[in-house]
Amino acid sequence: MANASPTSAPAKESRKREQIIRAALSVFAKHGLHGTPVPPIATEAEVGVGTLYRYFDNKESLINAVFQDSKQRLQDRLLTDLDLMHPSRALFDTLWARLTAFARDEPDAFQFLEMQDHHSYLTEESRRREQALLIPLGMMVIIGQRTGLLGNHMKPDLAIALFWGAFVGIFKAERLGYLTLSDDDLKQARDACWLAIANHDH
Amino acid sequence: MANASPTSAPAKESRKREQIIRAALSVFAKHGLHGTPVPPIATEAEVGVGTLYRYFDNKESLINAVFQDSKQRLQDRLLTDLDLMHPSRALFDTLWARLTAFARDEPDAFQFLEMQDHHSYLTEESRRREQALLIPLGMMVIIGQRTGLLGNHMKPDLAIALFWGAFVGIFKAERLGYLTLSDDDLKQARDACWLAIANHDH
DNA sequence: AGTTGCGGAATGATCATTCATTCACTTTCT
DNA sequence: AGAAAGTGAATGAATGATCATTCCGCAACT
Question: Are the C-beta atoms of residues B24 and B3 closer than 8 Å to each other?
Answer without folding.
Answer: no
